[in-house]
Amino acid sequence: MRKNMAKIVNKYPVGIQTFEDIREKGYLYIDKTKYIVDFREKGMKYVFLSRPRRFGKSLFASTLQAYFEGRKELFEGLAIADYEKDWVKHPVFHFDLSGAKHMSIEQLERYLADMLEEQETI
């Protein structure tokens, strides 16, 4: 029993926040991909994720990114695989605003312009 528990604990993704890393490295993943299907079927144009710190917001955003990039291989065996037939690839822009804390309006505008410029080169 202890040996099995050690295997489970070793596969718990402490500090890993990307869907790709969790899936490719075989870490424990609680399947929340049905929410993506629900959002799509309800025609939700905007989704506001309001959760406390460490509640998986970044992981879910990473999951959405993989979905919209058409990364079908990452979703094998998950709920969404039963619903999605056409894995269409869409351009995805990822903006990390954690570095924008306590900036003036001018600094924030420059920061966003730099991030957009960086995305243009990709």
From TrEMBL:
Protein name: AAA-ATPase-like domain-containing protein
Protein species of origin: human gut metagenome
Residue ranges constituting the AAA-ATPase-like domain according to the UniProt record: 13-120
Family matches, as PANTHER family: AAA-ATPASE-LIKE DOMAIN-CONTAINING PROTEIN, CONSERVED PROTEIN, WITH A WEAK D-GALACTARATE DEHYDRATASE/ALTRONATE HYDROLASE DOMAIN
Pfam families reported for this sequence: AAA-ATPase_like (PF09820)
